[in-house]
Specification:
globular; 25% helix; alpha+beta
Length: 105
């Protein structure tokens, strides 16, 4: 039995990607979502650490940062030395939103 495709053949396949991320500043994140909460902090000019995100109830912080980066947000991580409770110097990441060229500060 032959099945017919109800979609017309236009000669192009829109599902093929060129591998580049063309989604610049996707507004798919609601303010109440975890990505929306992180984004609001970063867009206000503040920074956020993994520990601060955990205090907000965001346990999958690296995944949320990856989703924001995939949506086109230029998030950078600066490693900052810190002395832990055992007196050992360790580093932790501080995440900020990069200032884009041509943006007015």
């Amino acid at each position: 039995m032959e099945q017919k495709n109800s979609r017309p053949n236009t000669g192009t396949n829109t599902s093929i990607s060129d591998g580049l991320n063309h989604a610049r500043h996707d507004n798919r994140f609601s303010p109440a979502s975890q990505c929306g909460e992180i984004l609001a902090i970063l867009q206000s000019g503040q920074s956020i650490t993994h520990y601060q995100a955990a205090q907000m109830g965001i346990m999958g912080f690296p995944a949320r940062i990856s989703e924001l980066r995939a949506a086109g947000y230029p998030i950078i991580c600066t490693m900052q030395p810190h002395v832990n409770k055992h007196g050992k110097t360790v580093k932790h990441g501080i995440f900020t939103l990069a200032v884009e060229k041509g943006a007015i500060a």
